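In the current project phase, the collection of sequences with tokenised folds has grown. One resulting record follows, to show the layout:
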Amino acid sequence: MNTILLIDDDEFIYQLVRVALKDSTIVYCKNLAEAEEVILTRPFSFIILDLNLPDGEGLRFLSKIKENEILQSIPITILSAELGISHKVMAFDYGIDDYIAKPFDPVELRSRIYSKIKKNQASQLGSSLHINGLNIDLSTYKVSFNETDLGFTTIEIRILYLLAKKLDQVFSREQIMDYLWKDTYVNDRTVDSHIAHIRQKLSTAPVSIETVKGIGYKLIRK
């Protein structure tokens, strides 16, 4: 089932979207602060974003998504009453996939969003890393070893993917935090906690995370 993030402060819009996309899971956020907390908790198939939100411009959230190497592959549709050409041009410059004006036709919304999801899923096939039986699959957000699911969380997968892309390269805690979410405060202990959980889940895998004292972490072959 698709999981779609809707960011809009109008609950009536939420009800319309929920009905139009009734065979998907809709995660609803009323502002950017809520969305920034939720986006890292699970993999999303799609994002529907309003431009005018109580705590800022939707474009600010959009720019963060497009700067993140993992999140930038999530397709995004702007759903807004802003019909000016300047808003549309700016949104497309940021990398959105579609722009739907309010009020909208629910049937058209469904068709346009699902076509984008299908196209994105097809493009994501094969987006995975393989290391001696260890498989990090971004299309399904799963980490497995010899076809056994290791039970990684979304954040753990993102950290492991970062380290696995460049084996033996040391990443500082600051680099890991910046990679997960720019401009959002996460303390060092949070990163260390995630690393500890990843280490436990990699106990039977052909790689391990090594601590480089005073600097950070790197992924090495055993």
About this structure: The chain has two domains: 3-124, 128-221. The first helix runs from residue 11 to 20. The domain at 3-124 is CATH 3.40.50.2300 (Rossmann fold).
